[in-house]
Amino acid sequence: MKRNLLKIYVGLIFSILIWSYSFAMIKICYNYGFTPLLLVNVRLLVGALILFTLCRWKGFLQQIRKEDRWRFILLAFFEPFLYYIGESISLTYISASTVAVFIGMIPVFTPFFMYFAYKEKLRKSVLISTFFSFIGILLVFYSEIQLSGNLIGFLFIFLSIFSALGYTAFVKELVDRYNPYFIVLIQELIGAFFFLPLVLIKEFQFVHQIQWNFEVILYVFLLAFFASSLAYVFYSSAIQALGATRTSIFSNLIPVFATIGALLTGLETPDFIKITGILIVISSVFALQYYTSAFRKQFSQKIREKIFPPST
Description:
The chain is mainly α.
């Protein structure tokens, strides 16, 4: 049991690392002539081909129940379709670290989504964390506007955030009935089908502009196999084993690793205001997870028992 949990956590952390660095890899692919939707479609088709081969080899192919067909369609509509539209287009307007900060706020939005969708009670800790996260976001927003002067990118980021919430809601209903590899395979196939008309109409004419070399092929493969495929498999497995709430905690690390990745690749050098905003957002999200976790309750109980032992 412990060994299986260790594998789950290792796979989950690997997913977060891959997704964090994917923002920088996408930016690099854009520099080589890829357009947003064209890159996404190539990622999905290559990833689906690899996953189909793997599923066929491992015997993971399954029959989809009739009542689950609409769930798979909506799952793919939210993510990858809407999510990748928001993420890819936002990266053409604003920096990788800024996109990552907003994506890392998904755990903050989740309680509000659960309140409106399922009438779950909002805790004070959620409201306090949201307030401080908003301050941090304003600082990041101010820094980015000073640099790019563009609001469009932020609108597309929020499209990604709300799409991720919809994805989480549907994948929770499927992970108990289907293999994670199979879920991601169907998700990518349907997503590629959604993207194909847009690519053919809007961006296929730009294929000749792509500067093909070993570096861009490597990044496309890494995005297709790891970021678009394997990372989702590990993440779905984590949701199945740990639950959606505990799994989402790890997405708080995305802004940290994404900023480091952007710095290492030389894509950006954040100013003091932006770094301050990033730190406030990350701290607020981590504080939210700490104060709403069962670990905090158990830890506090143990401390109280040490200080005030029960009378015998």
